[in-house]
Amino acid sequence: MTRVLVYSSKPHDREFLPAAPAASALDWQFEPGRLTPDTARRAAGFDAACIFVNDCADARTLQVLAECGVRLLALRCAGYDQVDLAAARQLGVAVVRVPAYSPHAVAEHTVALLMALVRRIPQAHRRVRDFDFSHRNLTGFDLHGKMAGIVGTGKIGRIVAQILKGFGMCVRATDPFPSEAWARAHGIEYTDFDTLVATSKVLSLHLPLTAETRNCINAAVLARMPRGSVLVNTGRGGLVETQALIHALKLGHLEGAALDVYAGEAGLFFEDHSGKPLPDDQLSLLLNLPNLLLTAHQGFLTTDALTEIARVTGENLDRFRAGNSFLDGTLL
User: Which residue among 76, 236, 311, 321 is the active-site one?
Assistant: First the structure.
């Protein structure tokens, strides 16, 4: 039986992973802490380590895992910027992922954040809970007829574009590998990044985090966005230069920003820090801005997505146990 140590495990992992169809031949052990160089030795005696978005699988950590006998790193997510793939190959540690668990979950969360931001839903909800039914400072704007810019048209970006098109927005997109047939079918126009930034009332990010995309939304880019525009990021926190975003929001150049991800989220998100001083000054600044809406990386958190994550992760691990090839698109 394959022994699997699940790092960064939460109650939903302990519920969904063992219930997956292919999971019966797997011995699951759950570790609430993140994978780091210091916690990697907890995997001694395990065949596989199962990690999530904020675990650290750099060269040093992978070296320790390999020394402990781990032969498979199973990501229960699509992104893999947290993994040093070159080091994994050199050490003989196979890396698999869940390439498309539910793009609808993240896309729908993106649109939910956008609508909550532009219609001031959190502020309105807090106010009426205090029996204050006034409308001061709750004025939003219609999405219908406005320009939406989609940065990255993978599965999630395309679904967001289609939803916003359904709202009657004008939708443009940019991507290094355009999906021209899809764009034609949905009346969406591709353009270059600079034009998209300069013309979009709503700019929504759906890119992986790479050396090329890190801080792609920086001070210079934010300055080119139209005054009164909105930034939405449900991709990766590192796409946005945090200090530049704080400056643009404080000046009022951006009307608002809605984020499900944050560059410094590792070690903070997915944990309860209530009643303690927040150890991240930039995050404290963000949370005190009235035109910032933040959720703690929960775009994936639907029963549909969790079921699919568990299914593919379980199949990946079971195929490893049986010595079979991996599912298409899962092996990195």
Answer: 236
